[in-house]
Amino acid sequence: MTEGSQQKRVVVVGAGWAGNGATYHLAKQGYDVTLLEAGANPGGLVAGWKTAGGQSVEAGVHGFWYPYRNIFSLINELGINPFTTWTRSSQYSPFGLEVESPIFQDLPRLPTPIGTFLYTQFKRLPLIDRISALPLLYALIDFDNSDEAWRRYDFVTARELFKDFGVSARLYRDSFEPMLLVGLFAPGEQCSAAATLGMLYFFILAHQSDFDVVWCRGTVGEKIFRPWVEQIEKAGAKKLTNRRVTDIIVDNNRATGVVCGDEVFDADAVIFAVGITGMKKIVSNSHSLQSRQEFINLSNLGAIDVLATRLWFDRKIEIPRPSNACFGFDATTGWTFFNLNELHDEYKNEPGTVIEADFYHANQFLNLSDEEIVQRVQRDLATCIPQFRQAKVIDSSVIRLANAVSHFAPGSYRYMLPASTSYDNVFMSGDWIVSRHGSWSQEKAYVTGLEAANLVVDYLKQGKPAEILPVEADEPHIQVARGVNKIVRDLGKSILPDFWLP
């Protein structure tokens, strides 16, 4: 920067994975970055806090999957060690243990999807039902994360997808729908087939080890975001909490400021990095954003309710695996439970058992009292592991999160925003933003934050773009299959009518 020149100012709205990622990179490139967070702590849904009794809680427990290459690279750069070792997981139904997953990278690597198929230990699901998934492999090959593929599958429900490709009713009920309930947070009839295929790719078709997961050894807010924010501030960025954005100031198709009530933050570029619900609230108050159809259309997007509970029991209970997913207890709700004595450093020497149980698509539970919820959680835990029946709950935390996580409903893709907007210097990021990177969940949010930062670098012509690690390339036989499929599909377009509705 030449002497006397002014730093270029960037305002980032939202201090989750996307917002922190964008802020950190731009601050390192010499920008004057102001990070605005509506809550009291950075981190969004992963921000942790303390109960009145000093116990750590957070809005659900979040896994970090093997393909999260960019997040793992960030962790290495920060020089922290927040994660457990790779863990095994289980699935339960009201009938007992259903599935156990190994640590796939510890086993001989087989061509995808053979390793996942052979090494996953199904306790009750017959082989004939598992084999019924084979025709679905065509859809996974056909879905290449392109814009065309998203539009081809997005109007179809996940339930229709599995039915059309001959998946057995039992395989759908006992395997695929549970995966949807804890991965896309909704039952199959409410999930886009395109979003479903995007998720299933990592668990079935990508690579054998992609199903492996680690967990944070405490709250993500304490273990990752606190040291990260310290580095962000050392890089020169300003972090301001309890700042709820209400509008942007626009001049000649450029945002020149961000409005928070009576405060105005001058800007040469703006990055929005908030969830769907937060973005819809901003648009509802913003005359500038309401003037553009792309932002008006966000009212067509939705989010899903989550219930996060943490229970302290008076005795040690033997739990075979630290992370567990559950299905069949409620028709449209999936839930997970975690043994925090094994996962979190804080509870390693706890005399009793500490359990985190999180419920997704939990709208029917949010109006229950805390006491009713705790009783229900203990009852369901006891169905999985009978020792919970005799245990006593000595402390608990219940967190209701209305409209908390993105809902990828059928037909929603056309309303999702790309990183660039119709404003010259307003950019978008988050797990619901269109990205061709192909990542998912927290990794996708972080990557879109880097992508938005790179758009700012390109627009303001200062600094270097962030290096974004690509998703690991498909295995050779998958590349060949996708290449052949594309040739056949292109040939079909040239000689056959287009039977797909727009």
UniProtKB/TrEMBL annotation:
Highest taxon, organism lineage: Bacteria
Record-annotated Amine oxidase domain positions: 22-456
Listed GO MF terms: oxidoreductase activity
Protein name per its UniProtKB record: FAD-dependent oxidoreductase
Protein's organism: Hassallia byssoidea VB512170
Upper classification of the organism: Bacteria, Bacillati, Cyanobacteriota, Cyanophyceae, Nostocales
